[in-house]
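Could you help me review a protein record that somebody else here produced? This is what I was given.
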Amino acid sequence: MKKWMAILTAMTMMSASMMSVTAAEAVQGDVDQDGVLTGHDAAMVSRHLLDDSYTLTEEQLAFADINEDGTVDQTDADMLYEVQEYHLGDVVDGMNDPWRPHISDAAAILEYYAHKAIGKEYAFTELQKNLADLDLDGDADMSDAHFALMMYARIAASLGIAFADEGIYYCSSDINSPAHLM
């Protein structure tokens, strides 16, 4: 009897903890559903608006309409960018406040990719994986490390973060993209 009570209690606690995670993720503006408003959310909306090949699901579109006016537009992307808790590329939390691209972010993304390439685990949280995916291709890889390093170089050369003033919050290797960093 005690064993069944223990199992039932554990299942109840597990269900309650799963419900609280779901509730935490249901925040307006949390397009990627990781529980936090980040630069990744702003980038997803920005790319959806600027790149016809990048689409959001109906659920993502509902979360993307942060001002709840019934339309997902640049205003939503800009509002998400303004309220983000973490910037896209900010994988080493707390390095700079306010956050600016830092070489340690590029190094962390590269280290994550290198470990993944040889089949080893790397201690990146899901949030860090989202923030490391600068080109929004669904994976933190060599191109993302390259973009993070280029963003750092632009700041070091006093050029500012590319395109943020124009409402473009993601990186692209497509030379025809408005988010092309080269």
